[in-house]
Amino acid sequence: MKARDALQLAFSAVRSQRQRSLLTALGIAVGIAAVVWLLSLGTGLQIFVRQEFTQFGTNLLAITPGKTETFGVSGAIVNSVRPLVLDDALALRRLPYARATLPWVTGNGAVEAHGRTRRTAVYGVGRSMPEVWQFAVMSGTFLPDDDGAAPRAFAVLGHKVWRELFGGDSALGAAVRIGGDRFRVVGVMQPKGQFLGIDLDDAVYVPVERGLQLFDREGLMEIDLLFGAEGVGDEVAVAARELLLRRHGREDFTVTAQQQMLDVLGSVMSVLTLGVAALGSISLLVGGVGILTILTIAIGERTAEIGLLRALGATQRQVRLLFLGEAAALAALGGAAGLLFGVGGAQLVHALLPALPVATTPFHAVLALTVAVAIGLLAGTAPAMRAARLDPIEALRTE
Amino acid sequence: MRAADQFAFAVQSLLATRMRTLLILLAMAIGTAGVVLLTWLGESGRRYVVEQFSALGTNLVIVFPGRTETVGGAPPLLGETARDLTLDDALALQRSEAVRRLAPVIVGNVALSHGSRERDATVLGSTADLMTVRHLELGSGVFLPAGDPRRGGAECVLGPTLRRELFGAAPALGEWVRLGDRRFRVVGVLSSAGRSLGTDLDEMVVIPVASAQALFDTAGLFRILVEATDRDAVARCVADTERIMQQRHEGELDVTVVTQEAVLSTFDGILRALTLAVAGIAAISLVVAGILIMNVMVVAVTQRRAEIGLLKALGAGAPTIRAVFLWEALLLAAAGAGTGLLLAEAVSRIAANAAPALTSGTPPWAALAALVVALTIGVGFGVAPARRAARLDPVQALARH
Amino acid sequence: MIELRSVQREFHVGGQTVHALRDVDLDIARGDYVALMGPSGSGKSTLLNVLGLLDRPTAGHYRLAGEDVTSFDDRQQAEVRRRRIGFVFQSFHLVPRLSTAQNVALPLLLAEVSRKERSRRVQAQLLAFGLADRAAHRPDELSGGQRQRVAIARATVTRPELLLADEPTGNLDRKTGDEVVKVLEALHHDGLTLVIVTHDPDLGARAHRRLRMQDGRIVADDRRAR
Q1: Are residue A133 and residue A185 in the same domain, yes or no?
Q2: Which residues in chain B have Cβ-Cβ distances shorter than 8 Å to C54?
Q3: CB distance B30–A282 less than 8 Å?
Q4: What average pLDDT score do residues A215-233 get?
Q5: For a FRET experiment, which of A17, B75, B156, B216 has its CA 20 to 30 Å from that of B287?
Q6: Does residue B78 sit at the A interface (CB-CB below 8 Å)?
Q7: B64-100 burial string, b = 16+ CB within 10 Å, else e?
Q8: B9: which chain C residues are within 8 Å (Cβ-Cβ)?
Q9: Which of B70, B285, B298 best probes binding to A when mutated, by most A CB atoms within 10 angstroms?
Q10: Domain boundary among A183, A218, A251
């Protein structure tokens, strides 16, 4: 029997028992829909997080004081004997491929202007912040390039702070008090949004030396290094590490490449997504049992039919393939329907929560259909083999 | 037909079609076991986290320097503040009657060395009360001495891993170690507490808070850990703390005061929600099992047309026929769920033997919920076929034979 | 006992209307032994189904022992079928997975008789119909004659007043058929009203009254005293 004919026969058998086939396919559809839905949401979440990170550009190294293996912040907030200093940042700037370095500290402080006070984040940053953090000034200018240890007391306001304290009026040239000290506003930043919960607009930016003074620190919290496109992340990281090792004498710092963080995050999220999708697979397993059950019943009912086929000259293999084909057809139908439901469901979530992207990749679709058919074939194996092994005479005798 | 007879009739017809009954039981069992096991895992995890967190201390109130503008927002975990939390602030807090004891904390990273061996260590600068507040246990020696915390001493207490790495088998008590550029004498060694929510206590060294201030050249405290007198005093403790700090900081409330309870319940809530979500996803499989029940019942109705026609001819009313089929669906669902529950219970016990962090036995409410869901599924997916059976025309049903 | 007045039964099959019963008037007295005869399609089976409350007439009335059962709802009709009418079919219609005893017990299950009472009555029936040694056998382990006897035992276990048989010997050989007829006649002798649908003239000849049907009407009604 030609494959096409066999397939047609399989589909006609499925069609003839419409309700039963529909319900069986529905079982698989529900399982596939659940898995596709979860995969779509998970992938969407991955994209979301990736977008959050890469808004800073990917050619970034982060150097923090203290040795920490974890993706944590302990080095930055705890004290260490040998801190990262501004001279370290200057030295790093001289590395090949390094385009800019950004030393910074941050803390919490009260900002006063116009009689209004607001507690906000205060960032002491180097002048290259707009370049390194890809963050532009909306009005005025950024902090000037003051060489020497005593930069002028200028400040740049984050967009939200500006709105809250100045209500839309021009802030340029205005005097503000930050943490009790006086500063003059020279610029206001564009709105940038949030990064994993940290609001960059609810902040003020002062020269890093001033920041160190304000928080009474000797050491920086972090030095970000932006390297040119020609640089390879790993090489630059190695170079930075060696330089600092020479300067500090020991490895009391941590160098993290943006890409590294992304990779770690990516794999963590992948594992989570897969884990969650695996949950949906329980449903697929049950769906498979469903196909097995229905096929077992069907073969019991169609014993005479099978006997007839064999009497007419069908081989065991052909009978087996016939029933496997039916199982696969049922599963494929269910898989296709499930794919549609899953994608539809994901889109629905996106419509309700526009902030959450969803993504169903072609890979998901292929995976769904392949898994569905695989389940069908697996579930159908035992019944198909039983059908093939029926004794034709006994089968025909059954009435 | 009496209920007991309906039941027996249903059991018999299920037994007659053994294969399909078994397969349906399998389907329900898989679904039920999946849901219950996932719930069990979630509960174990939640319980573990809550236990770990509770072990940190009793009736704890934690003071963070800094405050965010948004009400109820997380305290600023990163960064400095313009105004430090000082040792004097900590001492002032003791004025509150709701405070039983407290411990100021400074944290830092430093190289710890003894002789030729050196290692990075996390330094905790605190007072004698830290041991009680944080439920620490000494393996040997004593903890930091009591006394005026403003006077730093040269005592230190090692975590067991540090002790092992720096001293090996040699005695550590009374020996001198180097922290950065200062020397400290080991007065005690902590007993192994293992990991507590991510921080490895075994790799810490505790020194007097004033010495830590000198070591790191900073006056600001990292946190102040406050132990309230009892559960009911916690709220008062929070209020007093805020009031005192505000007074001391010229009317500005620039600290965040958090209770252990609050953090616990947040965790608790999140983990519960996660468990439910995960179980919910797994529960989809129960719906699939229900679809199978419906499917097979519909097939059965078709196959047993003659039997149904006969029953009607013998005088069975529609309610009786419906009841018989509903019993079958119900039995399938309930027996399947029961099997799944037993399976899940067995797995959880075996696993708990191997990994003590897991609770032995599945949560009883999960078992109850699973049964309720199973019965709902049985009835829900059995209703349509049962009604179809009851509606069969006896003449036509009997005619086809 | 049975009064049929102006009974009609129409079926709608594939766009056409089939008049299975046209304007049937019939009286059957208690204790009658009636044979319903006629060519296939004459409506005799339909008439039997109406008598047994398995089928509802499209028009007309059916009074059973003075009550107008056509106006009964499904529940009430089921009750009547349970207690007062017994059915015997050509293809026996035994439940394949139940044993002989369990098959005979079915009507008692439906009548919510207690387990002990059920057991007693079933035993009595099995003895009366010579099936005591076949009590645990399944239908596929019985001969045709035995199966029909089980069916008759089942049909009479609730002591109905009326026994309706649709071609009871149709699937049996001559000899076995004769035995079954003797069993039915013995029941009639004990007071049961017996109505048998048959195309077998010999069987018809044994009845006390023959109703001949054609095209949905009763065209002949002749009695023979016995």
Answers
A1: yes
A2: 312-313, 394-395, 398
A3: yes
A4: 82
A5: A17
A6: yes
A7: bbbbbbeeeeebbeebbbbbbbbbebbeebeebebbb
A8: 109
A9: B285
A10: A251
Q: Are residues A200 and A308 in the same domain?
A: no
Q: What is the DSSP track for A153-217?
A: -EEEE-HHHHHHHHTTS--TT-EEEETTEEEEEEEEEPP--EETTEESSSEEEEEHHHHHHHTT-
Beta bridge partners of A111: A118, A178
Domain range for A329 is 3-52+263-397
Q: Give ipTM to 2 decimals.
A: 0.84
Vertex A293 angle, CA A287 and A295, to 5°: 105
User: From the candidates C12, C89, C110, which should be mutated to test the interface with B, based on the most B CB atoms within 10 A?
Assistant: C110
Question: How many angstroms separate the CA of residue A336 from the nearest CA in chain B?
Answer: 16
Whether residue A137 is found in the same domain as residue A195: yes
Structural domains of chain A, count: 2
| Residues A183 and A38 both lie in one domain | no
Does C contact A via 3+ CB–CB distances below 8 Å? no
Asked if C78 lies within 8 A of B1 by C-beta distance, the reply is no
At A334, which amino acid appears? G
Q: Does B27 touch chain A (CB under 8 A)?
A: yes
A98 lies in some domain: yes
A79 → closest Cβ in B69, B216, B298: B216
Q: Note whether B295 contacts A218, CB cutoff 8 Å.
A: no
B-chain CB neighbours of A297 within 8 Å are 20, 296, 299
- The answer to whether residue A136 is domain-embedded is yes
Q: C-alpha dihedral over B198, B201, B207, B210, to 10 degrees?
A: 20
Q: Are residues A236 and A297 in the same domain?
A: no
Cα separation values, B232 from A226, B59, B87, B128, B130, Å? 53, 9, 27, 25, 22
Q: For residue range A33-60, what is the model confidence (pLDDT) as tens digits?
A: 999 998 898 888 888 888 877 776 678 8
CA distance A254 to A273: 29
Residue B199 is predicted with a pLDDT of 62
Q: Do B285 and A118 count as a contact with CB atoms less than 8 A apart?
A: no
Minimum CA–CA partner of A197 in chain B: B74
Same domain, A277 and A216: no
Strands B117-126 and B99-114: antiparallel
pLDDT in tens, B239-298: 999 999 888 888 778 788 888 888 888 888 999 999 888 888 888 999 999 999 999 999
- Chain A contact present for B388, CB below 8 A: no
**pLDDT greater than 80 at residue B379:** yes
Query: Domain ends where: A193, A219, A251?
Result: A251
Given C55, C93, C110, which is nearest B1 (Cβ)?
Answer: C110
Touching partners of A (3+ C-beta pairs < 8 Å): B
- pTM for this prediction: 0.79
Same domain for A293 and A376, yes or no, is yes
Assess contact for C155 and C104: CB atoms under 8 A.
no
Q: Which of residues 128-167 of B touch A (CB under 8 A)?
A: none
pLDDT attached to residue B72: 43
Determine whether the interchain pair A290/B291 forms a contact, defined as Cβ–Cβ distance below 8 Å.
yes
- Return the residue matching tokens 């393996």: B139
Residue A208 counted as domain residue? yes
In-domain check, residue A325: yes
Chain A neighbors of B296, CB-CB under 8 A = 293-294, 297
A130 and A223 assigned to the same domain? yes
pLDDT per residue over C53-82, tens digit each?
Answer: 888 899 999 999 888 998 888 888 888 888
